[in-house]
Amino acid sequence: MEEERVPLRFVRYLTAQDQRELARYQSKVAYWQGNLNEHIQHRINVGTNQYREAMNRAFGPGGSFHRAFTGPYWESQHLNTPPPTTLPPLPPELLVEVPVMPFPSPPAFCFR
To answer: Domain tally for the chain?
Structure first.
């Protein structure tokens, strides 16, 4: 089934006041977009830290992978194997919660 399209019609030209309101609205939307990007990056950073903690538990010193391959035979076969390393967690300033802002309301001339 095809959607019914509403034809667009010209209403009026924007006045100077409308253009100023539109510029303010666009700056608010740009600020909102920046805030949203920071919020998304915060969520990514939290997930990265959880991933690093899990990898460090498994593959770091004393981790399950390291414990499974220790002993005289393993050490005789892998004399040049470096000791296990860990990934450092992200600094706390990258994990600060960023509150989500509501989307800005459109300018008043949009409702006329």
So the answer is: 1
Q: Where are the alpha helices (DSSP H) in 1-112?
A: 16-59, 64-68, 72-77
50 near 90, Cβ under 8 Å? Answer: no
Q: Which pTM value belongs to this model?
A: 0.70
Give the residue among 100, 87, 96, 91 at the shortest CA–CA distance from 36: 100
- Residue 41 within a domain: yes
Q: What is the pLDDT of residues 46-84, one digit of tens each?
A: 999 999 999 988 888 888 887 777 778 777 777 666 677
Count Cβ atoms below 10 Å from residue 75 Cβ, excluding itself: 11
Q: What is the dihedral of CA 99, 105, 106, 111, to 10 degrees?
A: 160
In a domain, 59, yes or no: yes
Domain membership of residue 11 (yes or no) is no
